[in-house]
Amino acid sequence: MNAPSRTTASAPEHLTGYDLLRNPRLNKGTSFTQTERRALGLEGLLPPAVLSTELQVARRHDEISSLDDDLQKYLVLSDLQARNETLYYAVLMSDPAAYMPIVYTPTVGEACQKFGHIFRQPRGIYLPISARGRVKELLSNWPDKDVRFLVVTDGERILGLGDLGAGGMGIPIGKLSLCTACAGVPPQNCLPVVLDVGTNNQALLDDPLYLGLRQGRVRGDEYMAFVEEFVAAVQQLYPKCCIQWEDFGNINAVPILERYRNEICTFNDDIQGTAGVALAGILASLRITKQKITDQRFLFLGAGSAATGIAELISQAMAGAGMDIDEARRRNALFDLNGLLVTSRKDVADFQRPFVQDRSPISTFLEAVRTLKPTGIIGVSGVPKLFTREVIETMAELNRRPIIFPYSNPTSRSEATAEEVYRWSDGRAIFASGSPFPPVELDGRKLVPNQGNNVYIFPAMAMAIFATEAKRVTEDMFLTAAQAIAEQVSEENLAAGLIYPPRERIFSASLHVAERVAARIFEQGLARVPQPDDVGALIRSSVYRPVYPV
Ligand SMILES: O=C([O-])CC(=O)C(=O)O
Ligand SMILES: [Mg+2]
């Protein structure tokens, strides 16, 4: 059944001629009909042929596939977004598996690194800390007045690439493109934001083309006051808006989430979204190994907020299966630059404490694997190549089907490649990486690597929140999302080692997740709309489709 669905909003004002062609939300390019051209003063401004959306999509597809440089493809797509928003989404949604690696990881990482050098047209809101006291005024310049989903970064930890300052804007833009393309959140309700508090990246500070504030990062009380002003302004201007925090350094990510999670509708994607996708992958892996979650032990490479976020959600799932929560947390060990996090270490932060092991220090990751005998290792270090041959071989000796998740992004930061992990484990590893890898041939078998990326979570979460006007985002919603992803993996997929729904089907998979999460939001009494009889129909009727306004 086709529920009525939202398309691009039609013009409140009646634009004509070039004003219409230059309005990306209303522009149809060569798809304007003869009647529209006559009525809207477009005759003569367009070549005479009228093309269907399908042909327009095919034209862009041909153009993009003829380019061999991914950054060029990224630029073609972002120019399209600035020119014809409907067509941009029609292109992305026509082949998400092909276009995600361009508008998202890994290519978006390069776009952020080169931001000042490739800048063309503005998108989103830039809030420099020099505008403290006027944040609401700046935010009010955004043309859309019903912002319901906002992704914000301060650029300090962009993927695994580090501090990219204002160049981090590429991330909120890319994440929100996927909220629309993968789960149908209407673009007119989305807002990308950068909090520009300076950068400590000297190469950027020395680059004449750098576009952010040319100063070191502001920290401490002044920083928090700026964040506070931002949150208050968002609350006043857009009372139904959810704030997604993205790619903040640990030093701010953890306190910001703690400060606001019980006050407003908000979540941190790197902590909670990544946790959801990791747990989903583990739940599906257990369907392959026929083991229980309470029999698992995980060792994390990296002990930042992504690691503790995943470790905590796994612990909650173990506790849900009957295990004591403290015992569950001890089954998730963290390893960082200074070794295993053990009780005798003096440099443990509060957010890491639940996972600290009561044993003697271990200084190498290989030794930690040998001693703790994990069933799975998860890489969230941002440092490439740390899952060495010995580490993978040891995991394969310890486990018939070792779980190996090098999650760091982009591809250049992955703890191991798919090919390495499959080769060193004789094809037995259950592998998922944050950024995509191509299929691997091993002894005549074709192995298809999984992409364990929070893209399976945050667009669906955004849609559930949008449709229900949720008041809060709870851990329980991420547990539900993880289960809703894992339950969609077919037996046939599992037999081929696949632990996530195929990316080709990410739209329908996300709508399923959104429906399950929305149902949970109603159950928890967190919705601000009346509970419908059919939550699926509510989701479907909230979904944006890339169809031109009539
Ligand atoms: O953006 C991605 O691909 C996943 C993510 O949140 C990160 O690595 O920070
Ligand atoms: Mg991120």
Task: Report on this structure.
The chain has 550 residues and is α/β, with parallel strands linked by helices. It has 3 domains: 17-91, Hemocyanin, N-terminal domain (Up-down Bundle), CATH 1.20.1370.30; 103-264, Rossmann fold (3-Layer(aba) Sandwich), CATH 3.40.50.10380; 272-455, Rossmann fold. The protein has 24 helices and 14 strands. The strands form 3 sheets. A 7-stranded mixed beta sheet has the order 8-7-6-9-10-11-14, with helices on both faces. Strands 1-3-2-4-5 form a 5-stranded parallel beta sheet. Helix 10 (170-183) packs across helix 20 (458-468), helix 17 (365-372) packs parallel to helix 18 and helix 23 (506-523) packs across helix 24. It is globular and about 75 Å long. The relative contact order is 0.11. The model is unreliable at 1-5 and 8-12 (pLDDT under 50). The structure holds oxaloacetate ion and magnesium ion.
Structural category: alpha/beta
Number of helices: 24
Helix content bin: 40-55%
The main sheet orders its strands as 8-7-6-9-10-11-14
What is the rounded Rg?
23 Å
Instruction: Characterize the biggest β-sheet.
Output: 7 strands, mixed
CATH H-tier superfamily of the largest domain: NAD(P)-binding Rossmann-like Domain
Q: Kindly state the mean pLDDT as a whole number?
A: 96
Shape verdict: globular
How many domains make up the 3D coordinates? Answer: 3
Secondary structure elements and pairings:
Elements: H1 17-21, H2 34-39, H3 53-65, H4 70-83, H5 85-94, H6 96-103, H7 107-113, H8 115-118, E1 125-128, H9 135-139, E2 149-153, H10 170-183, E3 190-196, H11 202-205, H12 220-237, E4 242-245, H13 250-260, E5 266-268, H14 269-289, E6 298-301, H15 305-320, H16 325-330, E7 332-336, E8 339-340, H17 365-372, E9 376-379, H18 389-398, E10 403-406, H19 418-424, E11 430-433, E12 440-442, E13 445-447, E14 450-451, H20 458-468, H21 475-486, H22 491-495, H23 506-523, H24 535-542
Parallel strand pairs: 1-3, 2-3, 2-4, 4-5, 6-7, 6-9, 9-10, 10-11, 11-14
Antiparallel strand pairs: 7-8, 12-13
Helix pairs in contact: 3-5, 4-5, 5-6, 5-10, 10-20, 14-15, 14-21, 17-18, 20-23, 21-23, 23-24
The protein binds oxaloacetate ion and magnesium ion.
